[in-house]
Design brief:
Elements: E1 2-6, H1 10-22, E2 26-30, H2 33-43, E3 47-51, H3 60-70, E4 74-79, H4 83-93, E5 99-102, H5 107-117
Parallel strand pairs: 1-2, 1-3, 3-4, 4-5
Helix pairs in contact: 1-5, 2-3
């Protein structure tokens, strides 16, 4: 399974990447929406794990909307902010998010969540 992590915080990004690779996943990383779109076109991820608020004021939901318009990935949105606010914003933008989680999220819980939102392979 291919996973794309969109996270601007380097330590969190690398911890998620290393753990998910250890669990046997193929993992790519991006620090912003532009990089996420480039990685998505190249790698066609099955699941995207994205931070909501990225550096430079970028909104992870806008990146998620663009990702879904080009490639139908399941998206997990993680945030340190109120989940209700993020859900409302996703509904306003008509972005389908498979799961919302608050930070910090344990790496084992993240791996379980990735499995639960992934499309079953025929």
């Amino acid at each position: 399974m291919r996973i794309l992590i969109v996270e601007d915080e380097p330590v969190s990004k690398m911890a998620m990447k290393r753990y998910l690779e250890f669990m046997g996943y193929e993992v790519a990383v991006a620090s912003n929406g532009k990089e996420a779109l480039e990685e998505s076109r190249e790698r066609r991820p099955d699941v995207v794990v994205s931070d909501w608020i990225l550096k430079d004021g970028e909104d992870g939901l806008y990146a998620a909307r663009e990702l879904q318009s080009t490639h139908a990935s399941n998206i997990i949105m993680v945030t340190a902010h109120r989940l209700e606010h993020v859900r409302e914003k996703a509904q306003e933008l008509r972005v389908k998010i498979a799961a919302f989680r608050r930070k910090p999220i344990s790496l084992s819980n993240l791996a379980e969540l990735v499995e639960s939102v992934a499309e079953p392979k025929a």
